[in-house]
Amino acid sequence: MNHNVGWGLIGASNIAREWMIGAIRAQPGNSVVAVMSSNAARGAAFAASNGIAASYTSVADLLADPAVDAVYISTTNELHAQQAIAAAAAGKHVLCEKPLALTIADGHAIIDACRQAGVVLGTNHHLRNGASHRAIRALVQEGAIGQPLFARVFHAVKLPENLQGWRVNNPAAGAGVILDITVHDVDTLRFILDAEPVEAIAMTPRSTLATELIEDGVMAVLRFGNGVLAQLHDAFTVEYAGTGIEIHGSAGSIVGRNVMTQQPIGEVVLRDSKGEHVIAIEHTNLYDHALASFNEAIKGASSPAATGEDGLRALAAALAVLESSRTGKSVLVAV
Ligand code: NDP
After folding, report:
1. From the CA of 74, how far away is ligand 1's center (Å)?
2. 17 CA closest ligand 1 atom index
3. Cα–Cα distance measured from residue 197 to residue 227, given in angstroms and rounded to the nearest whole number
4. pLDDT, tens digit only, all 335 positions of the chain
5. What is the CATH number of domain 127-287+315-332?
6. Distance 99 CA to ligand 1 centre (A)
């Protein structure tokens, strides 16, 4: 069967340019047919430099383009909900960046709108598409570490200078490290542990990069429904910490290094009573994997790698972390 998907990009963003346009074009029959930017000149320049035929300044115009079958939303975070709902109403499939929305109510509204319209909804949590995280999940599922008891996530990085805009200075855009990075940690842990976070406690430091009242670092603990305690360290402000994830169980530990990244890199080691085993990983582009699974979902074969529900649950835990950091109290995760 002929399977062509024309994509409209909502947002002339860095992530679209760096990763997603290539990932879309890597899928058979997929093409990028249009881009929407609120700024006509920037949109036209983005379209020209990326070989995109049409550029629009309104979401409605992009959605009215019959060549658009699906949209990829990568605007600033406060716009995701209204744009996703509009796309669903126009009958377009929706791949939305994280955080799916800024509130639980908006997350539900996106999911409901896509369900009612009968379109596919995915959240672009890329990490679960990584071969390293898929290998870690498989090890946990096959019982390689016995009962999982603890997890530690190291995701403290230096925010690149070209990204030091709305993330660190615009609260209305859904700024801060928790909605940017913690939300990814949560999704990755949910994927690996097959469990839901139920409670969060967190502290943030005095910001040194972000403006006052926007957190640029956090240390948090999440309790999962299966009893696992997960410790998260996320930041925009440290350059040399390195990233990683560890899952510690009753019979072994899994240590992933350099795996909390967009790049298809990193190492995974299993330690148990027989010693240390390096796990063979065949790395592939994470975003290509996400797009391939989205295409399968459009064909009706499966769900996207991360669904709307996954996006909502990651958002809910991130919001609990945020609330805890502000109130000093532990917060139950409410979906
Ligand atoms: P950008 O800052 O590059 O783009 C966001 C919006 O900012 C664009 O939609 C654009 O508006 C506007 N913009 C872009 N460049 C300029 C400029 N030079 N001057 C003024 N405005 C500009 O965002 P990111 O690519 O960093 O992030 C976009 C979304 O993707 C966010 O939701 C983020 O959380 C998510 N993200 C996800 C990642 C992942 O791996 N899953 C990685 C990185 C980001 P307009 O469209 O109107 O032109």
Report:
1. 6
2. 25
3. 9
4. 458 999 999 999 999 999 999 999 999 999 999 999 999 999 999 999 999 999 999 999 999 999 999 999 999 999 999 999 999 999 999 999 999 999 999 999 999 999 999 999 999 999 999 999 999 999 999 999 999 999 999 999 999 999 999 999 999 999 999 999 999 999 999 999 999 999 999 999 999 999 989 999 999 999 999 999 999 999 999 999 999 999 999 999 999 999 999 999 999 999 999 999 999 999 999 999 999 999 999 999 899 999 999 999 999 999 999 999 999 999 999 99
5. 3.30.360.10
6. 12
Please choose from 9, 14, 96, 161 the residue to mutate so as to test ligand 1's pocket, defined by most ligand atoms within 8 A of CB: 14
Interval between CA 37 and ligand 1 midpoint (Å): 10
Contact 154, 313 (CB under 8 A): no
160 CA to centre of ligand 1 in angstroms = 13
If you ran DSSP here, which 8-state letter would residue 263 be given? Answer: S
E strand segments, the chain: 5-10, 30-36, 54-56, 70-73, 93-96, 121-123, 148-156, 197-203, 217-224, 229-235, 244-249, 252-257, 267-272, 275-278, 331-332
Does the pTM of the predicted model rise above 0.90?
yes
- Break the chain into its structural domains and give their ranges: 5-126, 127-287+315-332
Distance 170 CA to ligand 1 centre (A): 13
Pocket test for ligand 1, best of 10, 13, 39, 52 (most atoms within 8 A of CB): 13
> 5-126 domain in CATH 3.40.50.720?
yes
Ligand 1 atom 17 nearest Cα: 42
Q: Which residue has the tokens 């409410």?
A: 334
